[in-house]
Every structure is written in C-alpha cells, then in structure tokens.
Amino acid sequence: MEDLKLNVSLLRKRVPNLTVAARSVGLRPATVSNLCTGKIPLARAEVKTLVRLASLANCKVDDLIIQRGEEKMIETGIKVLDLFAPLVKEGKTGFVARPGMGQLVLLAEVFNRLKKQGFRSVFFAGDNNNIADAVAEAEFHSTSAEEILACIEKYQPADIILGVDRRIYLSEDFYQLEDRFYERGINNITFAIVDTSGEAVDEELPYGPLETLWEFDMELAAKHSYPAVNPLTSISTVLEEINLDSGHMEVQQQARKVLRRSKELTYLVEQRGVGNLSEADKNTFERGKKLEAFLTQPLFVAEEFSNQPGQSVTLSETLKNVKAILHGEVDKIAVDDLKYIGSLSV
C-alpha cells in the first residue's frame, strides 16, 4: 500500500468541517489530520477508521484510496520552502506564526513570485493594517465572498493563488464558497491561509488537514533570520511524490538531522564551549549553523527595507548547495558570509 494514499480532496469536498465531523463519529482529529498529511501512512490506518471516514463522505472506502503521484509541487525559488515544505499546486498551505514573525511578508512574497509564473493573486481578508504587505502584492482583495467568487470566475482559466485569513477560512461563509467552487468546476486554486490573530500557534489543529504547513520559529525571528520558517516542523505531503531521482527526500532528511543535532549541541557549547565537543560533533554543530544561515534569503518585496535585491534559487541549486554544506565543502566559509545570499558558488 506504499503507493496509495487518502483521497483528501474528496474528503474536503464532501465534509467541509472535517475536524469537527471526525469527532462526531468517534475519530480523533489528530489521527485524521495525520492520515491526510501522510504522517500516518495509509497502510497503518485501521479499517474502522477508513469506514467511518467513508460514512462521513457518503462514499465507498475504495473511493477514499487513490494512487500517489497526483500532487504537483510549485517551485517558489525560496530555499527553505522548496527544500523542507514545498507548496502543493491546488492544495492548502497553512501559516502558523505569532504576529511580527513575518508571515504576511512571506505571503506577499509568494504572491509576487507566483504572479511571475502566470498565477493570479487574490486575498480574502478583512481590512486592517496588519495585512498591508499582502494586499499590496495581491491583484484583488476583498472581504466579500461574492466579490471573491466573481473575481476568480473572471480570472478563469488562469491558475489562482488565494490568500485567506484564518478567521474567514473557518467560517461557514468560506465552506459555502468552497461548495460553489466545486459546483462550478473551479479547481485551479492554490490556497494560502494566514492567521492575522496569532491564535493558530496555540491550537493543536489550527486549520484541519492541509497539504503543507509552514510553522514559523520565534528563535529564528528573534535573530532576524528570515524567512523564519522552521525547517524541523514545517511539512508537505508532496515530498513523498516528487523528485525521487534528484534525491530531494534524502537531502531534506540529512539536513533536518544536522539542524536538529546542531540545535541540541548549542546548549552544550553555551555551557562548556565548542572546544569540548568531539570532532564529529564540532563539524555537525558548525555545519548546522552554516545551513541555518544559508536558509535565510533576501525577498523581492523587502528590497526597499533591506537594501538587498531579492534572490531566487532553483530547487536543483538549493539541493546542490545544501549537499555541499553537509559534506563540508564550505567549512572554510564564515557563517555570516552565508546569510542573506542566493546560491553558493560551488
């Protein structure tokens, strides 16, 4: 069953508020979410769980099981995203961050970059000062579901990137809007859900099942290491289906291992100094710091404030550069020299 997965798209269309509905039939929301994101492989799902999900969706169990390979990655040119938690075409991505950690700037950057790929950008959110960055990059912004629907119909058949405020995303109005998309055959929308209130950080399942989760890290934000997306906890379902020949998954897993161990060693270094580490741990510690620095990146929408031109790095270059760092090919380069650059010259 390794080549099979849950038909999350069908579940969402048939059961809009899946998290709440799961409880009604005796399923743990976390279990359903983990099945949808692939954290729990379909092969490990209990038959009774699939039967209950099928009953919610009013379909057969067979309808809930589909072949892998249908999801496609949208390459953004943002290193930390493309490597650790790629954007899924026509999927849903949730941002989890407290205010001031850069999530609206990142949404604006995603709008900016996808417009260059032919996407039309739309933002469904309230009117407040916190969303100014994203509104500035959106081609259309409204607080009205009717206006959003009319705009998206006008933009057909172009691909759409639709930013949505979490408060609207969890509302009945949004569930009805999604039903109207489905009824009218509109399926070319990639959703990016932001939380302007900062409440999502304290929720176990702030959005319900997603294809991609971008979780922001307070420590990175405090160090002004942007985009402050946590490479250890941000995930995407598409990684199991793409770029198998390029070694994407292998590089990602090695990078996570080094970053995690480097973070652990930081506490030892602060207490005893780097000189007390073994040679292997010293290499891991230093390469982890260099990798963290390399994952920062100048953004196009921040050029006015950073005085640095935005940088875009292809996935193939990112994989090549990360492997070079992990293999010690840039050990002689200082950490600070790796911050806010694009690609390495290796």
Structure described in brief:
This is F-type H+-transporting ATPase subunit beta. This protein is of the alpha/beta class and 346 residues long. It has helices at residues 8-14, 18-24, 29-37, 47-57, 79-84, 103-115, 132-137, 145-155, 166-169, 172-183, 218-222, 248-272, 279-294, 303-306, 315-326, and strands at residues 4-6, 65-67, 73-74, 87-88, 92-96, 120-124, 140-142, 160-165, 189-194, 212-215, 235-236.
Description:
The chain is built from 15 helices and eleven strands. The chain has three domains: 4-67, 434 Repressor (Amino-terminal Domain); 73-240, Rossmann fold, CATH 3.40.50.300; 248-338, Bovine Mitochondrial F1-ATPase, ATP Synthase Beta Chain, Chain D, domain3. Helix 7 links the parallel strand 6 and strand 7 (140-142). Strands 7-6-8-9-5-10-11 form a seven-stranded mixed beta sheet, with helices on both faces. Strands 1-2 form a two-stranded antiparallel sheet. The protein has 346 residues and is α/β, with parallel strands linked by helices. It is 43% helix and 12% strand. The chain is globular, with a radius of gyration of 21 Å.
